[in-house]
Amino acid sequence: MAIEFADTRETLYAALSRAIDSIDGPTVTLRRLLSLVGEHGLLFLCALLTIPFLIPVSIPGVSTVFGAAIILVALGITTNRMPWLPDRLMDKDLDAVKLTGILRRGATVVAKLEAFIRPRAQAITGSGFASRINGLALIFAGVLLMAPLGLVPFSNTLPAFAILLLAVGMSQRDGVVVLGGYAMIVATLVYFGVLAWVAFAAGRGLMGLFGG
Asked: Cα–Cα distances in Å, from 38 out to 5, 161, 174?
């Protein structure tokens, strides 16, 4: 089924605050979290799913669940079709206390970001071709978010900011913010490259130590 991407009038911060206040019980599922946010469109949901990663170290395991959801949603954006989200992903129990605390901290970051968003450089967001390219960038950033480096500082944070900037920029027709999302993807790749080089150098050092 084809879908239309309409801009939302409610800010991400307002919807996020409302959702946080409605969470009860020891656990919460992705299905419940998305139902609390309401019908705001796929771009809005992509932005929401990045919130737990806007701090240097996130909850272990959450990046797999939310990253997979972001990839599936971004695939729907790219193909202009409503995505299918598997029940196993939607109904996985997450620690509500930890998640709520992180969401509150992430909401402060979102509030600061939204103060600078306005329609700009709309050639980057205003055509179907641009939307498909930006959708592919969202998918790639989602893959980076799922990298098994959750305990390494900023390994989830950098791709999360890329997704947040891309999604919010596309939704609000702010091409400058979208370009910021691409810059964060590049920063993520550079950071991962540095980590790989450090691991390789450390491995060679240990081999030389024990081999000598």
From this structure: 15, 22, 23
Q: Provide the phi-psi class of 80: left if phi over 0, else alpha when psi is between -120 and 50, else beta.
A: left
Q: 1: closest CA among 58, 82, 77, 61?
A: 82
Q: How many CB atoms lie within 10 A of CB 176?
A: 15
Question: Residues 41-83: pLDDT tens digits?
Answer: 677 778 878 877 876 655 666 777 788 888 888 887 787 776 6
| Amino acid making up residue 169 | G
Closest by alpha carbon to 101, among 62, 45, 71, 72?
62
pTM for the whole structure: 0.74
Tell me whether residue 190 is exposed, middle or buried, using C-beta atoms within 10 angstroms of its C-beta: 0 to 12, 13 to 18, 19 or more: exposed
Query: What pLDDT is stored for residue 184 in this prediction?
Result: 95
